[in-house]
Amino acid sequence: MGRTRLRKLLWLPEADLKPKARNCSPPAIQDFPGDGFTQEQRQRGFIVIHFAIASYLFLLLAIVCDDFFVPSIKMICDKLGMTEDVAGATFMAAATSSPELFINIVGTFITQGDLGVGTIVGSAVFNILAVPACCGLFATQILDLDWWPVSRDCLAYAITVVLLILTLHDGRVEWYEALILVISYILYILAMVFNRRLGNFTKRLFGKKAMYKNISEDCPLLLTTEKADKVSALIYAMDEDDSEDDIVNLIQWPEAGWEKVWWLLTWPINLLLLITVPDCRRRTLKSWYPITFGMCIVWIASMSYIVSWIITIIGDTLKIPDSVMGLTFLAAGMSVPEAVSSVIVTNQGHGSMGISNSIGSNIFDVLLCLGLPWFVKAAFLPQFTDDYSVKINSEGLVYSSVSLFSTLLLLYGAFLFNKFKLDAKVGIYCLTMYAAFLILASLIELNVFFTVNLPTCVH
User: Fold this and answer.
1) Longest CA span, the chain
2) 172-174/389-391 β-pairing
3) pLDDT at residue 107 tops 90
4) Which residues pair with 143 in a beta bridge?
5) Is the pLDDT of residue 346 over 80?
6) What is the Rg, in whole angstroms, of the alpha carbon atoms belonging to the chain?
7) Cα-based angle 200, 203, 207 (whole degrees, multiple of 5)
């Protein structure tokens, strides 16, 4: 009897045996192919090549999203007859945040580490503090912000951060917790459908009216006003005339000095995209927008995988945890395009649009870019039998998530005390807070104060 019992125990499948607790974390670099360099070669200086490639791929992703993906999304929304509020909260948010989504897909399903969640948490803080800092420091004038869209987006984001903290507090994400995040995003979309009614009711309730009404104040991700139809018609007409003017001419040498440098830098990218992606901004290719959409998905997904691979190699070479690489280098690289676009619209006089864009995109990042991959992984592809959850390796990400709430309070407090004016004073304040967050979060992740990350296993 004892021998039979022993034989059954020995024949238990490996999938049913959960591993014992380790005193180290398995290296994520083993989930990727080799790069052709040894560890010693990279440490002697060849890692610079990886930094250069990663930076260039960030630029490629930005061009794909801004010049191809966003125009195709706009055409899809027009064909579906979607209102701008709903389109902004769904398709447009997906267009601007798609790299973060694919980075978390790689982190959840391939490396099974903290690269994805670290990137989104870091990107969230970048959008909350660094983007307003850039808008304030580079603004050509003091801008009056409409209190309602800023307050609305801050409230929605505060609820989002609370949900994230409750999800990460025990170091694991259950399938139902991930589902709650996804459902919360759907509820956010429904709230955006009634955004104007809520805005009018709230303004009547508090008896406040903005001195200036910018084009952007009704939606965090798209231009809308009370005269949205007229504005949309005007913008559409302008786009019809000027959309082809924005297309880079690959055979015409620009006149300005800095434009020449930019033209040379992006020429290989623009040539590659010209060959592989139909540009639906051209009149002759407008009907090709579904193919443009599909090819952009292919480019973003493949480049996100390569970026994750390179960042993992850099972190492994420099002995930096995945969570730190996500919070710093990867988050900033993914968010720089949003910072540039926010500065541009701010200098055009649309201050609330620049701020609301940065806050609104964070809601999509946390609720859908984290929630959806977590739900699919935990509910349908569990690592172990009867364990429908996703493990979070770093305990420090919980503290970083808590800090998201504090940075949001600091930002709203800055606007409140400055009477909802965006100027250089607010910019300096936000930049200082962002630097303080990066230093504190990195020190926590590096186990300076207490242990939150296990050392990487020797490989």
Assistant:
1) 89
2) antiparallel
3) no
4) 422
5) no
6) 23
7) 140
